[in-house]
């Protein structure tokens, strides 16, 4: 699975040149981990859903945690696709912070929304699983300078950004707002009334937080 750039994980996985049994195990793990959690899912349940045996699972993945990481690692890497030229080039075309934030939020929200089952797993494991947490923080740390360099630190946008903010702080501010909203959608859906209105508010909050007033 070398090609790591995708929008929809399930569609990408279907195109990978891997054994059918391995693909079935990955999809079964994705479904069950998102529904019942990592600790609430057994390898026997995964095997049943995948239509295979537990021996097949351990043929491809040494442990259940290895299966978990194999599912979420490509998702995490594609949250901020720093090696995707189209994504970085899109960031370069904006001349105002407001327009850039609008694109960033809408583009990444779409990615998360079509891969919501995987992000449910990531969110649920983030606080308790050090490997998942480390993967996520490595993404943020590695991505921040590249994204900031491709967008926020270029003129004329650089002049619009608060000078005391570094690239990591800017990315944390953006992702923090988006992740909180996604958790709200998952666990308190009645609060969400108008998606477009909510995303507009998030964009305004981020823009005010990082821009020079």
From TrEMBL:
Pfam family, one: TetR_N
Keyword Lipid metabolism attributed: no
Coiled coil: none
Residue ranges of every copy of the HTH tetR-type domain listed in the record: 19-79
Alphabetic keyword roster: DNA-binding
Gene3D superfamilies named among the record's database cross-references: Tetracycline Repressor, domain 2 (1.10.357.10)
InterPro entries, per the entry: Homeodomain-like_sf, HTH-type_Tx_Regulator, HTH_TetR
PANTHER family in alphabetical order: ACREF/ENVCD OPERON REPRESSOR-RELATED, HTH TETR-TYPE DOMAIN-CONTAINING PROTEIN
Protein name (database record): TetR/AcrR family transcriptional regulator
Organism (species): Pediococcus inopinatus
